[in-house]
Design goal:
The protein is an alpha+beta fold and 89 residues long. It has a domain of 48 residues. Helices cover 55% and strands 13% of the residues. The chain has two helices and two strands. It has a two-stranded antiparallel ribbon with strand order 1-2. The longest helix is centred in the first third of the chain and has 26 residues. The protein is elongated.
Length: 89
């Protein structure tokens, strides 16, 4: 009888342990991706930056949006001047 109750206890505890393990795997941090990034004005070759894929994607999206915004501004005649403040000379 003891043996049967022990086996029943193990059978009931196994799914709970499996759920705990899957929760631990879900909390595991994302893998970092490191890239060499050029530093303007440096002869040393830049530095390495490490971020997750989601962070790299977000930075790429922001850079793309900024570039598109600048291009739209130039098409509309804004920001095309050669003076210090952007006005034509």
């Amino acid at each position: 009888m003891r043996r049967l109750s022990f086996l029943a206890l193990i059978a009931l505890a196994a799914p709970v342990a499996a759920q705990d393990m899957s929760a631990d795997l879900a909390k595991k941090p994302e893998k970092k991706i490191c890239r060499a990034v050029a530093t303007t004005g440096s002869i040393l070759g830049g530095k390495r930056e490490c971020h997750t894929k989601a962070q790299w994607d977000a930075m790429s999206e922001r850079a793309s949006n900024a570039r598109d915004s600048r291009e739209r501004g130039m098409q509309n005649g804004a920001g095309g001047g050669s003076g210090v403040d952007g006005s034509p000379r």
